[in-house]
Design goal:
Pfam families: Lipoprotein_15. With 123 residues, the protein is mainly beta. 4% of the residues lie in helices and 24% in strands. The longest helix has 5 residues.
Length: 123
C-alpha cells in the first residue's frame, strides 16, 4: 500500500488572523506536501490550466475537488475558481486542488503519478 507516515504541521494562518489557508502542509518520505483539513493528500492535474479545471463528470467522482464556499476568498498563494459545474474550488499557485477517491486514510498517496498526469501538490 502506498502510505507515507506523515507528521501534520499546525494549520498555517494567513496574514489575516481570522483567515486560514485551505490546506495543511505535511511531511512525507518525498518531502513536504499539501493535505486537506482531514490530512488527505492533495493533487494537481497536468491537463488543468492556471485557474481552470479540466476534471469534470466522472473525473470528479474519482478526483473530488477541494471545495470552497461562497464566502471563501483568495489569500496568498490560494485562490478560488468557479467551475463550469457551478461548484467553487480552491487552487494553489493557480492550479486546482483535488483529493483521490482511492486514498483511504491520511498519508495515502496512491494518486501520485496516476496515468502520468496526477501529482502530489507540494508547497
Amino acid at each position: 500500500m502506498n502510505r507515507l507516515i506523515l507528521s501534520l504541521c499546525p494549520l498555517i494562518l494567513a496574514a489575516g488572523a481570522a483567515m486560514a489557508d485551505p490546506a495543511l502542509t505535511a511531511q512525507g518520505a518525498g518531502g513536504a506536501l499539501l493535505t486537506d483539513a482531514g490530512g488527505m493528500t492533495l493533487y494537481t492535474f497536468d491537463k488543468d490550466m492556471a485557474g481552470v479545471s479540466s476534471c469534470a463528470g466522472d473525473c470528479v467522482a474519482i478526483w473530488p475537488i477541494l471545495a470552497a464556499t461562497a464566502e471563501d476568498k483568495a489569500e496568498g498563494e490560494y485562490a478560488v475558481i468557479d467551475r463550469t459545474d457551478g461548484a467553487r474550488q480552491w487552487t494553489y499557485k493557480g492550479m486546482p486542488l483535488y483529493t483521490f477517491a482511492k486514498d483511504a486514510a491520511p498519508g495515502d498517496v496512491a494518486g501520485d503519478g496516476v496515468k502520468g498526469v496526477w501529482h502530489i501538490a507540494r508547497p
